[in-house]
Every structure is written in C-alpha cells, then in structure tokens.
Amino acid sequence: MLLHAGNFKALAQKFDFSRFSSVADIGGSTGCACVALCAHHPHLTATTCDLPAVRSVATAYIERHGMQGRVKVMDMDFFKDGFPKTDVIIMGMILHDWGLDRKKFLLKQAFDALPPGGAVICVDNLIDDERRKATLSLAMSLNMLIEFGRENSFDYTFKEFCSWTQDMGFKGTAILPLIGSTAAAIAYK
Asked: Where in the numbering of this chain does the O-methyltransferase C-terminal domain appear (predicted)?
C-alpha cells in the first residue's frame, strides 16, 4: 500500500534483517513493502501475497522498480489459504482491520508458517498501553469501528499484542517505532 511506503522504508532501515533470507508480506497489495525491503537488503527475497485481483497491480509495481527477480507475487486469501513458509512474515495495516478472533487466527497462521527463530512483524498504528497518549491511533481505532464495524475491528496496544503472541507460543516480542504513531510489533518464534 503506497500510503504506508514510508513506514516500510523505515522498517527496512531499522529492523535487522541480516539473519533472515526470505520475507512474505500478507495482504501485500502493490508489493511496496517487499520492494522497499529488498532494495535495502540485497540478500533478501520476498513474496507479496494478496487476492488474485491485485496481481497485475503488484506485478507492474515490482517490474517498475526492477525487482521481478527477487520479489514474487502469490495469489492468496489469507483467511482460506495457508501462509507461505518463510523467515519473516509482515502484515502491514492488516490486523487492525479485524476483530480479536481473526487477529489471533492470522497470528496463528504466521506462527505455523515460521521456522524457529522466525519473526512476524505487524505494522499498525499502535495504541499506547495506557490508552491516553497516542491520539491518532485512538482515532484510527474509532474510525475502524465506524467504517468497518465487522467483528469490532480495532487498533491495539503492544501489551495486547504481546499477550496474544505469547499465548500461542511465540518466545519474544519487541516494538520498533516507525513514522508518527505507526510502529512494528514484532514476535519471534
């Protein structure tokens, strides 16, 4: 999603990808996250995963940036298809679209696809744990409830993310501030 391209560039610069070789972006849209990561880390290969209707847009974006040799496109409905096996799974602005059961389902899909030591990175507008400071994130969460309403879509705190991921077996978590109120919530298997 080009709207968040700056956050993906910040992620590429701030997160240590040196021990990983492959990345999959779930709900990857145009493929801009994969392109940003591969442009900054020449050793990475990546797969952008989204619905078949998005394939032509992603393919064009990847080709425009000369990354067709390192970034693949995979047709996928992330609620019906298993996640690809990879070292790192990214979900950018995905978890906040869904209610708690679906959030946990997606995180479990990531857990099952990752090898030991792998990481899931969720890029979202995280709410501060006290729910008092991150006003943009709080407004975004309210917007999700109003706009989507489905299953009570909501943004979340890092503390909530830690609880969900630890309950399903992830061994460690970290938070990485990106741009503005956006952060990467990271869980390691």
From this structure: 10-152
Say if residue 122's pLDDT is above 90. yes
**Cβ atoms of residues 163 and 148 within 8 Å:** no
Check pLDDT > 80 for residue 149: no
Q: Which CATH class is domain 2-188?
A: alpha beta
User: Which has more pLDDT, 86 or 126?
Assistant: 86
Q: Which helix (H) or strand (E) holds 162?
A: helix 158-167
What sign does the dihedral 7-157-109-102 (CA atoms) show?
Answer: negative
Cα(first)–Cα(last) distance of the chain, in Å? Answer: 26
Nearest to 90 by CA among 113, 59, 66: 113
CA distance 110 to 119: 9
The two structure tokens encoding residue 159? 């503390």
pLDDT tens per residue, range 14-44: 999 999 999 999 999 999 999 999 999 999 9
Are residues 45 and 22 in contact, defined by beta-carbon separation less than 8 angstroms?
Answer: yes
